[in-house]
Amino acid sequence: MEMKAELVFIPIPEIGHFQSMLQLANHLVSRHHALSVTFLTFNAFFASAPPPPPAAPSFPGIRFITLPQVDLPQLDDISGVDCYLLSLQLLKPHVKHAIQTHVLASDSPQLAGLVLDPLASAMIDLAAELGVASYIYFPSGAAMLEQVLRFPDLDSQVSELPATKLTLPISVNSVPRRVLQTAMLEKDEDGYDPMLYLGRRFREAKGIIVNTLIELEPDVAELVSNRQYPPVYPLGPLIDRSDWTDDRIITWLDGKLAGSVVFLCFGSRGALGAAQVQEVAHGLERSGYSFLWSLRQPPRVKHALPSDYTNPAEVLPDGFLDRTAEKGLVCGWTPQLKILSHPSIGGFISHGGWNSILESLWCGVPIMVWPMYAEQKLNACKIVRELGLGVGVTENEDFIDGRDLLMIYTDGGELVKCEKLEIGVKRLMDGDNEVRRKVKQMSDTFREAVMDGGSSFVVLQQFIDDVFTEIK
């Protein structure tokens, strides 16, 4: 009788993390009929993605179990990362109970391991207690993964790092030290200890799945072959292909010429302060290009999420919507991939989150990277300076502003002025340039990687084989 195996996925309720993890599960159960997946989900008031309904018939071979809510102590002085780390610690007994009740039943497939979001790495201990393997699913790129894995070794050297340049081992070029998150450079930063904790826990996992492909980040081969770390499986791109969107938007795009529209969207936590919104609006108007702008309102309290404006005119320049009525459409949140795949989209202005970069490259749309938080400065440096697959928000590619989300929400620091944005949009939308050629080539490469015999196709099969080897 053929052995059946089940993996338990423990995501966090963040759109960028959860959706690509769901795609991973889809790929796994589609590839091997004897493999199934159970998601253990939870909700949190600071989450950007609510858990799915208990029954999800559109995902055969995948089931969802919602964990009980846990109460956190006063959160005023801790970061969102710390909120998740603490939540997952408190959820441990509930996770154990759910696995024992729903997965370890006598008639269930054999539990083959836990697949964990990085912030759920505390569950490595639970996997060991249950006698099964633990795997980290890393939703960002290999460059950031390499930094996290190396961080324990760098811990004693952080204060001695040079002030101007730092050579990233996974990169071809020397990059400014400040492309790293501040939490990785200053021991008194709030995020330093969590980053160190993650770097140490990652090394205890049986393997690490990373949402990238060898053709995009060739130096990931160094991670794969480095015996100091767990096996690394680069099997991306894992992107959300859900097809929901606003019919009004698609109808508007249908009326535009191919490649004529620039799309602006800054992720689930991205929103600009009022003064910066004014500069963006003037820059778009001055550029003369058609635009679709996902404009969102900054949150009013810590840990909350941006929301759609009830009346966007209240934050835009006087008369802007009337003057740009033929060329522009301002909307709220919209799924990016559906928009990026529309033939009228010719350029994408983004915060540079890893999922956004993968989606843009998959669709063959050049990207202007405007990093705002997390590892986005590192992503920008890699995509723009090293790979030439995008442009910076200003002509000299000085896109690294060192601000955090709170500063962006409140217009802290230096604004990107409309004159620079006008020039940037024109560079992005240039129909015949080297960046556009490279992006089209990478789009073809992405598709080849996930086809039968492609690099990511092969790595996915290797991961499945390793999972079954573990339980034999």
From TrEMBL:
PANTHER family: GLYCOSYLTRANSFERASE (PTHR48048). Belongs to the UDP-glycosyltransferase family. Its EC number is 2.4.1.-. Gene3D superfamilies: Glycogen Phosphorylase B. Keywords: Glycosyltransferase, Transferase. It comes from Vitis vinifera (Grape). This is Glycosyltransferase. SUPFAM superfamilies: UDP-Glycosyltransferase/glycogen phosphorylase. GO terms for molecular function: UDP-glucosyltransferase activity. It is an enzyme of class 2 (transferase). The keyword Transferase applies.
